[in-house]
Amino acid sequence: MIKCGKVGRNPRVDLKSLPIEPKAYSIKQFCEAHSISVDTYFRMQRAASGPVRMKVGARTLISVEAAAAWRREREMAGRRAQHTASRPSA
Questions:
Q1: Domains plus CATH for the chain?
Q2: 70 and 44 in contact (C-beta within 8 Å)?
Q3: Long-range contacts of 30-36 (CB under 8 A, 24+ apart)
Q4: Which ranges in 2-63 belong to alpha helices (H)?
């Protein structure tokens, strides 16, 4: 619900009450959003199959675009694995 500070021609909207979509995730937020453990995240990074990261000061963040690209890559890898598994051996 939007709070208005004043009724009339120029109502004031309390911007703090409006939802703000995240533009980047911390590692913990990324893991929570994708239902993976932090250990799994670091295991994927070591295997070069984790999302692209960015440094902002001392923080490591993952942009929503990088998270979406990572999900697409994981989906494609899953499809390739299914396709390879379903092919008969020669």
A1: 21-83 (1.10.1660)
A2: no
A3: 30/62, 30/67, 33/67, 34/67, 34/71
A4: 27-33, 38-46
- Whole-model pTM? 0.71
**Tokens read off for 21:** 């979509």
pLDDT in tens, 18-62: 888 889 999 999 999 999 999 999 999 999 999 999 999 999 999
**CA atoms lying within 13 Å on the CB side of residue 47:** 8
State the Cα–Cα distance between residues 28 and 7, nearest whole angstrom: 42
Please compute Rg for the chain using Cα positions: 21
Asked if 79 contacts 86 with a C-beta cutoff of 8 angstroms, the reply is no
- Please give the Cα distance from 43 to 59 (Å, whole number): 19
- Sheet of strand 54-56: strand arrangement: 24-26, 59-63, 54-56
